[in-house]
Amino acid sequence: MARNEQLIRQHKLLQLLEATRFGRTLGELRDDLVSDLGLGSLHERSVRRDLEALQAAGFPVVTVDTQRGKVWKLGPAFRGTHKITASVTELIALSVGRDLMMPLAGTPFWIGIETFWNKIQQSLPDGVWEHYQKYRDVLHVLGTPAKSYRRHQGILKTLHRAIVEHRVVSAEYQSLGTAKPTTRLIHPYAVVLYQSSLYIVVDLDPSSSDKPNLRHLKLDRFRKADPIDRYFKPRADVDVKQHLSASIGIFAGESPQRFKIRVSSFAAAWVLEDPWHPDQQVKMLPDGGLILRLRAAHEMEIIPKVLALGTEAELLAPRNSRIRLRRMIRNMARLYRDTEKK
Length: 342
Description:
It is globular and about 80 Å long. A hairpin with a 5-residue loop joins strand 9 and strand 10. By secondary structure, the protein is α+β, with helices and mostly antiparallel strands. The chain has a five-stranded antiparallel beta sheet with strand order 6-5-4-3-7, with helices on one face. The chain has a four-stranded antiparallel beta sheet with strand order 9-10-8-11. A two-stranded antiparallel ribbon has the order 1-2. The model has no long low-confidence stretch (mean pLDDT about 85). The chain has twelve helices and eleven strands. Helix 1 (about 5-20) packs across helix 3.
Protein backbone atom coordinates (compact mmCIF):
# COMPACT_ATOMS: atom_id res chain seq x y z
CA MET A 1 0.00 0.00 0.00
CA ALA A 2 1.27 3.49 -0.83
CA ARG A 3 2.52 5.50 2.12
CA ASN A 4 -0.13 8.21 1.73
CA GLU A 5 -3.10 6.00 0.83
CA GLN A 6 -4.45 5.71 4.37
CA LEU A 7 -4.10 9.46 4.90
CA ILE A 8 -6.02 10.13 1.67
CA ARG A 9 -8.83 7.78 2.75
CA GLN A 10 -9.08 9.42 6.17
CA HIS A 11 -9.24 12.91 4.63
CA LYS A 12 -11.99 11.73 2.28
CA LEU A 13 -13.86 10.14 5.18
CA LEU A 14 -13.92 13.50 6.97
CA GLN A 15 -15.33 15.12 3.84
CA LEU A 16 -18.04 12.44 3.58
CA LEU A 17 -18.98 12.79 7.24
CA GLU A 18 -19.08 16.60 6.99
CA ALA A 19 -21.52 16.33 4.09
CA THR A 20 -24.07 14.20 5.96
CA ARG A 21 -26.30 15.14 8.85
CA PHE A 22 -27.63 11.71 9.73
CA GLY A 23 -24.46 9.66 9.38
CA ARG A 24 -23.37 6.81 7.10
CA THR A 25 -23.02 3.10 7.65
CA LEU A 26 -19.66 1.38 7.16
CA GLY A 27 -20.92 -0.11 3.91
CA GLU A 28 -22.05 3.25 2.59
CA LEU A 29 -18.74 4.88 3.51
CA ARG A 30 -16.80 2.07 1.87
CA ASP A 31 -18.84 2.35 -1.36
CA ASP A 32 -18.32 6.14 -1.44
CA LEU A 33 -14.58 5.75 -0.91
CA VAL A 34 -14.30 3.17 -3.69
CA SER A 35 -16.26 5.42 -6.06
CA ASP A 36 -14.66 8.77 -5.20
CA LEU A 37 -11.06 7.55 -4.97
CA GLY A 38 -11.25 5.10 -7.87
CA LEU A 39 -10.26 2.10 -5.73
CA GLY A 40 -10.47 -1.42 -7.07
CA SER A 41 -11.75 -2.79 -3.75
CA LEU A 42 -11.81 -1.90 -0.08
CA HIS A 43 -12.80 -3.95 2.95
CA GLU A 44 -15.07 -2.54 5.64
CA ARG A 45 -12.39 -3.44 8.22
CA SER A 46 -10.07 -0.90 6.61
CA VAL A 47 -12.78 1.76 6.80
CA ARG A 48 -13.36 0.96 10.48
CA ARG A 49 -9.62 1.25 11.22
CA ASP A 50 -9.51 4.63 9.46
CA LEU A 51 -12.47 5.89 11.51
CA GLU A 52 -10.88 4.66 14.72
CA ALA A 53 -7.63 6.40 13.72
CA LEU A 54 -9.57 9.66 13.31
CA GLN A 55 -11.09 9.17 16.76
CA ALA A 56 -7.64 8.54 18.24
CA ALA A 57 -6.40 11.75 16.58
CA GLY A 58 -9.06 13.75 18.43
CA PHE A 59 -11.79 14.09 15.82
CA PRO A 60 -15.25 13.70 17.44
CA VAL A 61 -16.38 10.79 15.24
CA VAL A 62 -19.24 8.98 16.99
CA THR A 63 -21.48 6.00 16.31
CA VAL A 64 -25.26 6.04 16.62
CA ASP A 65 -27.69 3.09 16.47
CA THR A 66 -30.51 3.75 13.99
CA GLN A 67 -33.12 1.76 12.09
CA ARG A 68 -30.59 1.52 9.28
CA GLY A 69 -28.09 0.02 11.71
CA LYS A 70 -25.02 1.60 13.25
CA VAL A 71 -23.99 4.82 11.52
CA TRP A 72 -20.88 6.94 11.86
CA LYS A 73 -21.13 10.71 12.07
CA LEU A 74 -19.43 13.81 13.39
CA GLY A 75 -20.50 14.91 16.84
CA PRO A 76 -21.68 18.45 17.70
CA ALA A 77 -18.22 19.39 18.97
CA PHE A 78 -16.77 19.12 15.48
CA ARG A 79 -19.29 21.44 13.91
CA GLY A 80 -19.01 23.88 16.77
CA THR A 81 -15.29 24.38 16.16
CA HIS A 82 -15.93 25.74 12.68
CA LYS A 83 -17.36 29.12 13.61
CA ILE A 84 -16.27 31.48 10.85
CA THR A 85 -16.00 35.24 11.04
CA ALA A 86 -14.89 37.57 8.27
CA SER A 87 -14.70 41.28 7.62
CA VAL A 88 -16.09 42.93 4.49
CA THR A 89 -12.54 43.41 3.16
CA GLU A 90 -11.76 39.71 3.70
CA LEU A 91 -14.99 38.73 1.93
CA ILE A 92 -14.06 40.87 -1.08
CA ALA A 93 -10.59 39.32 -1.26
CA LEU A 94 -12.02 35.80 -0.99
CA SER A 95 -14.72 36.43 -3.58
CA VAL A 96 -12.19 37.82 -6.07
CA GLY A 97 -10.08 34.70 -5.57
CA ARG A 98 -13.19 32.59 -6.11
CA ASP A 99 -13.91 34.37 -9.40
CA LEU A 100 -10.35 33.80 -10.60
CA MET A 101 -10.66 30.08 -9.80
CA MET A 102 -13.93 29.72 -11.75
CA PRO A 103 -12.32 27.56 -14.48
CA LEU A 104 -11.94 24.86 -11.80
CA ALA A 105 -15.75 24.50 -11.56
CA GLY A 106 -16.65 20.84 -11.70
CA THR A 107 -13.32 19.64 -10.34
CA PRO A 108 -12.44 18.33 -6.85
CA PHE A 109 -10.60 21.62 -6.18
CA TRP A 110 -13.74 23.68 -6.79
CA ILE A 111 -15.78 21.65 -4.27
CA GLY A 112 -13.60 22.93 -1.43
CA ILE A 113 -13.82 26.53 -2.67
CA GLU A 114 -17.60 26.44 -3.00
CA THR A 115 -18.36 24.66 0.28
CA PHE A 116 -16.13 27.08 2.21
CA TRP A 117 -17.81 30.05 0.53
CA ASN A 118 -21.25 28.67 1.45
CA LYS A 119 -20.15 28.17 5.07
CA ILE A 120 -19.05 31.77 5.31
CA GLN A 121 -22.26 33.04 3.75
CA GLN A 122 -24.39 31.06 6.19
CA SER A 123 -22.42 32.10 9.27
CA LEU A 124 -22.42 35.87 8.68
CA PRO A 125 -25.14 38.28 9.84
CA ASP A 126 -27.36 39.63 7.07
CA GLY A 127 -26.07 43.16 7.63
CA VAL A 128 -22.46 42.17 7.01
CA TRP A 129 -23.41 40.24 3.88
CA GLU A 130 -25.44 43.14 2.47
CA HIS A 131 -22.56 45.54 3.17
CA TYR A 132 -20.19 43.20 1.34
CA GLN A 133 -22.50 42.97 -1.69
CA LYS A 134 -22.63 46.77 -2.04
CA TYR A 135 -18.84 46.96 -2.10
CA ARG A 136 -18.50 43.94 -4.41
CA ASP A 137 -20.74 45.59 -7.02
CA VAL A 138 -17.99 48.11 -7.78
CA LEU A 139 -15.28 45.47 -8.34
CA HIS A 140 -15.40 43.14 -11.35
CA VAL A 141 -13.00 40.41 -12.44
CA LEU A 142 -12.41 40.00 -16.18
CA GLY A 143 -9.94 38.07 -18.30
CA THR A 144 -10.93 34.57 -17.15
CA PRO A 145 -12.57 32.75 -20.09
CA ALA A 146 -15.78 30.84 -19.43
CA LYS A 147 -14.13 27.42 -19.30
CA SER A 148 -15.06 24.36 -17.31
CA TYR A 149 -13.36 21.03 -16.69
CA ARG A 150 -16.50 19.18 -15.70
CA ARG A 151 -16.06 16.53 -18.41
CA HIS A 152 -12.45 16.00 -17.31
CA GLN A 153 -13.40 15.56 -13.67
CA GLY A 154 -12.69 11.82 -13.61
CA ILE A 155 -9.29 12.16 -15.31
CA LEU A 156 -8.30 15.04 -13.03
CA LYS A 157 -9.32 13.08 -9.94
CA THR A 158 -7.20 10.13 -11.10
CA LEU A 159 -4.17 12.33 -11.83
CA HIS A 160 -4.47 14.22 -8.54
CA ARG A 161 -4.57 11.00 -6.57
CA ALA A 162 -1.59 9.66 -8.53
CA ILE A 163 0.37 12.82 -7.68
CA VAL A 164 -0.33 12.43 -3.96
CA GLU A 165 0.45 8.69 -3.98
CA HIS A 166 3.46 8.98 -6.36
CA ARG A 167 1.82 6.47 -8.67
CA VAL A 168 2.78 5.76 -12.29
CA VAL A 169 0.01 6.57 -14.77
CA SER A 170 -0.67 5.16 -18.22
CA ALA A 171 -1.93 8.20 -20.13
CA GLU A 172 -3.60 8.49 -23.52
CA TYR A 173 -2.62 11.96 -24.76
CA GLN A 174 -3.34 13.66 -28.07
CA SER A 175 -0.95 16.47 -28.94
CA LEU A 176 -2.05 19.27 -31.25
CA GLY A 177 -1.69 18.39 -34.91
CA THR A 178 -1.71 14.62 -34.36
CA ALA A 179 -4.40 12.34 -35.78
CA LYS A 180 -4.44 9.86 -32.92
CA PRO A 181 -3.56 9.92 -29.22
CA THR A 182 -0.43 8.15 -28.02
CA THR A 183 -0.09 6.09 -24.85
CA ARG A 184 2.82 6.79 -22.52
CA LEU A 185 3.83 6.13 -18.92
CA ILE A 186 4.17 9.31 -16.89
CA HIS A 187 5.25 10.29 -13.40
CA PRO A 188 2.88 13.14 -12.43
CA TYR A 189 4.24 15.81 -10.05
CA ALA A 190 1.77 18.71 -9.89
CA VAL A 191 -1.31 20.46 -11.29
CA VAL A 192 -0.88 24.01 -12.63
CA LEU A 193 -3.62 26.54 -13.36
CA TYR A 194 -2.43 28.94 -16.08
CA GLN A 195 -4.71 31.39 -17.90
CA SER A 196 -7.84 29.35 -17.15
CA SER A 197 -6.32 26.06 -18.33
CA LEU A 198 -5.04 23.16 -16.25
CA TYR A 199 -1.68 21.53 -16.94
CA ILE A 200 -0.06 18.47 -15.39
CA VAL A 201 3.68 18.66 -14.70
CA VAL A 202 5.05 15.20 -15.51
CA ASP A 203 8.33 13.39 -16.03
CA LEU A 204 8.03 12.00 -19.56
CA ASP A 205 11.16 9.85 -19.41
CA PRO A 206 11.03 8.12 -16.03
CA SER A 207 13.55 5.45 -17.12
CA SER A 208 16.32 8.04 -17.39
CA SER A 209 18.46 8.22 -14.27
CA ASP A 210 20.53 11.10 -15.63
CA LYS A 211 18.06 14.00 -15.31
CA PRO A 212 14.28 14.50 -15.39
CA ASN A 213 12.44 15.29 -18.59
CA LEU A 214 9.74 17.57 -17.20
CA ARG A 215 6.88 18.56 -19.50
CA HIS A 216 3.53 20.32 -19.08
CA LEU A 217 0.64 18.29 -20.48
CA LYS A 218 -2.63 20.16 -20.99
CA LEU A 219 -5.55 18.44 -19.27
CA ASP A 220 -7.81 19.14 -22.28
CA ARG A 221 -5.69 16.78 -24.40
CA PHE A 222 -5.86 13.79 -22.06
CA ARG A 223 -8.13 11.11 -23.45
CA LYS A 224 -7.56 8.59 -20.68
CA ALA A 225 -5.54 8.22 -17.48
CA ASP A 226 -5.16 4.90 -15.67
CA PRO A 227 -2.93 4.41 -12.63
CA ILE A 228 -0.95 1.18 -12.87
CA ASP A 229 0.17 -1.04 -10.02
CA ARG A 230 3.53 0.70 -9.77
CA TYR A 231 4.85 3.59 -7.70
CA PHE A 232 7.73 6.00 -8.26
CA LYS A 233 10.04 7.79 -5.89
CA PRO A 234 9.95 11.57 -6.49
CA ARG A 235 13.30 12.79 -7.74
CA ALA A 236 15.33 14.88 -5.31
CA ASP A 237 16.40 17.14 -8.19
CA VAL A 238 12.81 18.08 -9.10
CA ASP A 239 11.59 21.30 -7.51
CA VAL A 240 8.30 22.14 -9.23
CA LYS A 241 8.17 25.70 -7.89
CA GLN A 242 11.69 26.47 -9.09
CA HIS A 243 11.01 24.71 -12.40
CA LEU A 244 7.93 26.87 -13.06
CA SER A 245 9.74 30.08 -12.12
CA ALA A 246 12.15 29.55 -15.05
CA SER A 247 9.33 30.25 -17.50
CA ILE A 248 7.18 33.32 -18.12
CA GLY A 249 4.35 31.15 -19.36
CA ILE A 250 3.56 27.46 -19.42
CA PHE A 251 6.21 26.24 -21.87
CA ALA A 252 8.70 23.71 -20.55
CA GLY A 253 12.26 23.29 -21.76
CA GLU A 254 15.46 21.60 -20.72
CA SER A 255 17.16 24.89 -19.84
CA PRO A 256 15.95 28.52 -20.00
CA GLN A 257 17.30 30.81 -22.71
CA ARG A 258 18.35 34.44 -22.22
CA PHE A 259 16.53 37.04 -24.31
CA LYS A 260 17.33 40.67 -25.00
CA ILE A 261 14.71 43.07 -26.37
CA ARG A 262 14.90 46.74 -27.22
CA VAL A 263 11.67 48.62 -26.52
CA SER A 264 10.94 52.13 -27.82
CA SER A 265 10.14 55.09 -25.58
CA PHE A 266 6.52 54.89 -26.77
CA ALA A 267 6.03 51.27 -25.58
CA ALA A 268 8.37 51.34 -22.57
CA ALA A 269 5.58 52.30 -20.19
CA TRP A 270 3.58 49.20 -21.12
CA VAL A 271 6.49 46.91 -20.29
CA LEU A 272 7.08 48.70 -16.99
CA GLU A 273 3.39 48.61 -16.05
CA ASP A 274 2.95 44.92 -16.96
CA PRO A 275 6.28 43.11 -16.40
CA TRP A 276 6.90 40.03 -18.50
CA HIS A 277 8.61 38.20 -15.64
CA PRO A 278 9.29 38.95 -11.96
CA ASP A 279 13.06 38.55 -12.49
CA GLN A 280 13.36 40.65 -15.63
CA GLN A 281 16.15 43.25 -15.83
CA VAL A 282 15.47 46.70 -17.29
CA LYS A 283 18.04 49.23 -18.45
CA MET A 284 16.62 52.63 -19.33
CA LEU A 285 17.99 54.33 -22.46
CA PRO A 286 18.67 58.08 -22.90
CA ASP A 287 15.80 58.40 -25.40
CA GLY A 288 13.25 56.99 -22.90
CA GLY A 289 13.29 53.51 -24.34
CA LEU A 290 14.68 50.47 -22.56
CA ILE A 291 16.61 47.24 -22.93
CA LEU A 292 14.77 44.28 -21.46
CA ARG A 293 16.67 41.17 -20.39
CA LEU A 294 14.99 38.02 -19.11
CA ARG A 295 15.03 34.25 -19.23
CA ALA A 296 12.34 32.02 -20.74
CA ALA A 297 11.97 28.30 -21.29
CA HIS A 298 10.97 28.70 -24.94
CA GLU A 299 11.26 31.40 -27.59
CA MET A 300 7.52 31.23 -28.27
CA GLU A 301 6.99 32.78 -24.86
CA ILE A 302 8.84 35.85 -26.10
CA ILE A 303 8.16 36.16 -29.84
CA PRO A 304 4.37 36.75 -29.54
CA LYS A 305 5.02 39.53 -27.00
CA VAL A 306 7.53 41.19 -29.32
CA LEU A 307 5.12 40.90 -32.26
CA ALA A 308 2.35 42.44 -30.16
CA LEU A 309 4.43 45.62 -29.85
CA GLY A 310 4.94 45.82 -33.62
CA THR A 311 7.68 48.23 -34.67
CA GLU A 312 8.04 49.47 -31.08
CA ALA A 313 10.12 46.42 -30.08
CA GLU A 314 13.09 44.55 -31.52
CA LEU A 315 14.35 41.14 -30.47
CA LEU A 316 18.13 41.47 -30.26
CA ALA A 317 19.15 38.07 -28.90
CA PRO A 318 19.51 35.15 -29.10
CA ARG A 319 20.40 35.13 -32.77
CA ASN A 320 18.47 31.94 -33.69
CA SER A 321 15.25 33.40 -32.25
CA ARG A 322 15.85 36.69 -34.07
CA ILE A 323 16.22 34.77 -37.35
CA ARG A 324 13.02 32.83 -36.69
CA LEU A 325 11.13 36.04 -35.95
CA ARG A 326 12.43 37.63 -39.16
CA ARG A 327 11.16 34.64 -41.17
CA MET A 328 7.78 34.85 -39.48
CA ILE A 329 7.49 38.55 -40.35
CA ARG A 330 8.37 37.84 -44.00
CA ASN A 331 5.72 35.13 -44.19
CA MET A 332 3.18 37.45 -42.57
CA ALA A 333 4.01 40.16 -45.10
CA ARG A 334 3.38 37.72 -47.96
CA LEU A 335 0.12 36.62 -46.34
CA TYR A 336 -1.17 40.19 -46.11
CA ARG A 337 0.15 41.38 -49.46
CA ASP A 338 -2.58 43.11 -51.44
CA THR A 339 -3.17 40.89 -54.48
CA GLU A 340 -6.32 42.60 -55.74
CA LYS A 341 -6.12 43.88 -59.26
CA LYS A 342 -6.24 47.63 -59.56
